[in-house]
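Quick log. Single chain, no ligands specified.
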Amino acid sequence: MKHLTEHLTFTIPARRAFVNITREVEDAVRRSGVEEGLCLVNAMHISASVFINDDERGLHHDYEVWLERLAPHAPTSQYRHNDTGEDNADAHLKRQIMGREVVVAITKGRLDFGPWEQIFYGEFDGRRPKRVLVKVIGE
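-> predicted structure:
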């Protein structure tokens, strides 16, 4: 069985952002030489996410608004987690909603997406380096 493990590192200057990482993952699949298999992509930090959806600016705006409504950043005093001196409890909740990882089938050496699907890194408490694991396995 062929396999490849890589780590992508992101340092997002803002608190929140959505970054299309499809190309980086496709490159890893190509380097792996896997023709038929699976590709796991997961955020290695508890205030970041990996998810699949459309790369459309309006949708990303809607995510921002919706997530902020569900888990507003301020006032930070509303969260018990922030009693520890942190100010990122909302980021943990947003990550839980958006998810930790995705698994995409590899068919004929390519990620096997549905229409409009792309892979995104979601950052909810940026301004420091965070890793994303890309694990490719198959034949």
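The longest helix spans residues 57-70.
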